[in-house]
């Protein structure tokens, strides 16, 4: 009897999730009782009981002789319900919320940003003092939808240093790299479109694409880029609309795209009419610029994304989109529709700090500091039996394998009891194939308490 109730609840939860995720829309006909029973390998009576329960709560309607239909009054979209049901310790929202809400005394090796003391606080203060003396429009007016012209000119010059030729008119400022990708998804996707991502990839790509009701397909990532044979097969079979990736410093692996892989990816994109969004928010962490898809492609099929949140300040949110002119025009209209003008005050501040000669010196110091931290943290992790997947050329992330048989989610739960936020591998993996992996931010790992807690958590599970 109890087992029967459990199966009914499973069917109810499945239908609720489909309705919440909009794969079943208001007015849509549900699968027949026999059909759903066959699919789920359950008895028809179990499905009938589940449907009757959903009718009773008003989620679906029964039409005699016709079947069951989703109620016309849709429930609010529940993003957490739109994807697979994951353990909360490997849920991207869990990691983001714990990292963003952590107290000053908490340790955050699972977060994706630098400690405040590693950022150019003095430069930001100088920029704020300069802005305090600015004229009225800089402090009070809406910014233009395309963004502050002087900052777009500066971004254009910086793109040129990485081999990407783009005039200021091909650059649109956004509130962040995340907002830039959100705008592009609004611009390019329809619900149900297929989007290709790396497996593993930055976990918020999953969340954002679920919010746009996209079908997400993963391709295994290697030290030189996506597994090109699998990539070719998936592109041919699934015909995705978009591919979202990092080229320079890959998140979470720290890998770098090779020129050979980049060439093959672009050939496949041209063959199958695939648009690529290249997220390059970690560009300034590089010692030597890596290949960029946008540079090889000339912005024909590649859209380039950047941000200043990682190197300047996450409080002063500012990112940008680089694309072909006809797309920038459409994106500008979309930006007006969704956020009206640009954030002029933040753009003025970012321009002021970037124009200060101290920024380049800050980045040189930061790159060396990260390199030392990478070496030190890697050695200490190896002493615990935690092995880096590769030794990154630059950046802040180490993608590591835990000792055999240890689940990263279990370690994350144990660490959270000690006020330490970790990032288990399956949060980054669409296929849920990274159970034994974890991403570490080396800039957030210089407190010896962290290694003591990690060692104890591993010992209890070894």
UniProtKB/TrEMBL annotation:
One example GO MF annotation: DNA binding
Record's keyword annotation contains DNA-binding: yes
InterPro entries assigned: Aminotransferase_I/II_large, HTH_trans_reg/aminotransferase, PyrdxlP-dep_Trfase, PyrdxlP-dep_Trfase_major, PyrdxlP-dep_Trfase_small, Tscrpt_reg_HTH_GntR, WH-like_DNA-bd_sf, WH_DNA-bd_sf
Residue runs in coiled coils: none
Entry's family note: In the C-terminal section; belongs to the class-I pyridoxal-phosphate-dependent aminotransferase family.
PANTHER family per UniProt: HTH-TYPE TRANSCRIPTIONAL REGULATORY PROTEIN GABR (PTHR46577), TRANSCRIPTIONAL REGULATORY PROTEIN (PTHR46577:SF2)
Protein name as catalogued: DNA-binding transcriptional MocR family regulator
Protein source organism: Rhizobium laguerreae
């Amino acid at each position: 009897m109890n087992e029967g109730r459990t199966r009914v609840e499973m069917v109810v939860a499945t239908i609720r999730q489909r309705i919440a995720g909009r794969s079943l829309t208001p007015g849509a006909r549900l699968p027949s009782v026999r059909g759903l029973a066959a699919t789920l390998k359950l008895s028809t009576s179990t499905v009938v009981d589940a449907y009757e329960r959903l009718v009773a709560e008003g989620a679906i309607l029964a039409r005699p002789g016709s079947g069951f239909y989703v109620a016309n009054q849709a429930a609010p979209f529940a993003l957490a319900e739109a994807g697979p049901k994951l353990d909360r310790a490997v849920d991207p929202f869990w990691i983001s919320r714990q990292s963003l809400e952590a107290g000053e005394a908490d340790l955050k090796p699972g977060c994706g940003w630098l400690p405040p003391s590693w950022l150019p606080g003095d430069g930001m203060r100088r920029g704020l003092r300069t802005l305090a003396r600015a004229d009225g429009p800089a402090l009070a007016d809406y910014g233009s939808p395309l963004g502050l012209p002087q900052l777009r000119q500066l971004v254009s010059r910086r793109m040129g240093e990485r081999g990407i030729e783009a005039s200021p008119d091909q650059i649109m400022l956004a509130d962040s790299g995340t907002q830039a990708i959100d705008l592009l998804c609004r611009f390019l996707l329809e619900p149900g479109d297929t989007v290709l991502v790396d497996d593993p990839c930055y976990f918020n790509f999953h969340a954002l694409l679920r919010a746009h009701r996209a079908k997400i397909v993963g391709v295994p990532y290697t030290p030189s880029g996506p597994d090109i044979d699998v990539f070719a097969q998936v592109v041919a079979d699934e015909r995705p609309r978009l591919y979202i990736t990092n080229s320079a410093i890959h998140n979470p692996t720290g890998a770098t795209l090779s020129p050979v892989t980049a060439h093959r990816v672009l050939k496949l994109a041209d063959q199958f009419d695939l648009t690529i969004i290249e997220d390059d928010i970690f560009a300034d962490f590089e010692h030597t610029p890596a290949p960029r898809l946008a540079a090889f492609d000339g912005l024909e099929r590649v859209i380039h994304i950047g941000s200043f949140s990682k190197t300047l300040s996450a409080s002063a949110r500012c990112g940008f989109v680089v694309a072909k002119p006809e797309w920038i025009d459409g994106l500008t209209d979309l930006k007006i529709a969704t956020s009206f003008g640009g954030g002029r005050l933040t753009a003025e501040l970012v321009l002021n700090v970037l124009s200060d000669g101290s920024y380049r010196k800050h980045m040189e110091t930061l790159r060396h500091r990260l390199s030392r931290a990478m070496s030190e943290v890697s050695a200490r992790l190896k002493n615990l039996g935690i092995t880096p997947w590769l030794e990154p050329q630059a950046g802040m992330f180490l993608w590591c394998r835990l000792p055999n048989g240890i689940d990263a989610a279990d370690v994350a739960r144990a660490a959270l009891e000690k006020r330490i936020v970790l990032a288990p591998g399956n949060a980054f993996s669409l296929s849920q194939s990274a159970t034994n992996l974890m991403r570490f931010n080396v800039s957030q790992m210089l407190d010896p308490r962290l290694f003591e807690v990690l060692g104890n958590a591993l010992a209890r599970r070894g």
